[in-house]
């Protein structure tokens, strides 16, 4: 597919700020989903329907931008992190699907998404999201990474009986190894990006649970309200900063 010389990428460049916000978004996705479903008593089904409706509205706004706009993009990421968490939680808790099955299903769904995306566009580059079709593939892949990250993270925690902190350290080590592979061993950047995107989900969720859950369950007992508010406030502050400084933009899409 020919890349127009003036094409503007609709998603941000992968910077330090990108990973910081993404990690906090997934942490908040875990605690916010718990707060809405458990603390507010909405339950998984009502919470899922509500947040899905809000996510659809946010994505309509995001697609209308036709370029990377920090507040719109990161609002969609925060909401999709919540919905991705809820999708897996519904399958496991409401429908009795095992974590092994959900992990396999979302792995296959993500692989199929990438296969169809590549067959259609001949690239999976996140630096070339300059059409509505490519953006649709991008957001579908993002949704499946969150659902897969939730399932695989819960599966590891359940299978090995690790506490919140130990689980977070484990996935932190996995991400560190991917980083080492990218910088020193020639790991393919696209593969490395999507693997890191998947594994930051259980990393963030583990630390979110560690901060929010009661001390008798191995957490620090801050609660879901304080934890969610803390990370949401930090996300807003960083998004305002990058908006003012116009950081994170990919000016030209490169095929």
- How would the global form be characterised? globular
Largest sheet data = none
User: What is the number of helices?
Assistant: 8
Structural class: mainly alpha
Q: Taking all residues together, what is the mean pLDDT?
A: 88
Fraction in beta strands? under 5%
Tally of separate domains? 1
Topology of helices and strands:
Elements: H1 16-39, H2 43-65, H3 70-94, H4 99-121, H5 132-160, H6 164-184, H7 189-212, H8 223-245
Outline of this structure?
With 255 residues, the chain is mostly helical. The protein is built from eight helices and no strands.
Q: Describe it for me?
A:
The protein has 255 residues and is an all-alpha fold. The chain has one domain (16-245). Helix content is 75%, strand content 0%. It is built from eight helices and no strands. Helix 1 runs antiparallel to helix 2. The longest helix has 29 residues, at 132-160. The protein is globular, with a radius of gyration of 18 Å. The model has no long low-confidence stretch (mean pLDDT 88).
Keyword list:
255 residues; globular
């Amino acid at each position: 597919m020919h890349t127009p010389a003036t094409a503007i990428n609709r998603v941000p460049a992968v910077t330090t700020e990108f990973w910081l916000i993404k990690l906090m978004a997934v942490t908040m996705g875990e605690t916010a989903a718990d707060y809405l479903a458990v603390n507010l008593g909405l339950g998984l089904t009502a919470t899922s329907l509500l947040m899905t409706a809000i996510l659809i509205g946010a994505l309509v706004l995001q697609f209308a931008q036709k370029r990377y706009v920090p507040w719109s993009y990161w609002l969609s990421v925060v909401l999709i992190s919540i919905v991705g968490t809820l999708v897996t939680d519904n399958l496991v808790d409401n429908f009795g699907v095992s974590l092994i099955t959900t992990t396999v299903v979302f792995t296959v769904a993500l692989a199929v998404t990438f296969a169809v995306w590549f067959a259609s566009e001949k690239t999976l580059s996140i630096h070339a999201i300059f059409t509505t079709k490519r953006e649709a593939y991008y957001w579908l892949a993002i949704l499946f990474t969150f659902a897969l990250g939730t399932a695989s993270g819960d599966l590891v925690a359940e299978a090995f009986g690790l506490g919140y902190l130990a689980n977070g350290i484990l996935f932190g080590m996995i991400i560190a190894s991917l980083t080492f592979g990218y910088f020193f061993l020639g790991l393919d950047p696209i593969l490395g990006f999507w693997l890191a995107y998947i594994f930051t989900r259980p990393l963030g969720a583990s630390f979110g649970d560690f901060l929010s859950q009661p001390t008798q369950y191995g957490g620090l007992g801050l609660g879901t309200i304080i934890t969610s508010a803390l990370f949401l406030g930090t996300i807003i502050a960083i998004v305002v900063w990058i908006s003012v400084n116009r950081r994170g933009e990919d000016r030209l899409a490169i095929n």
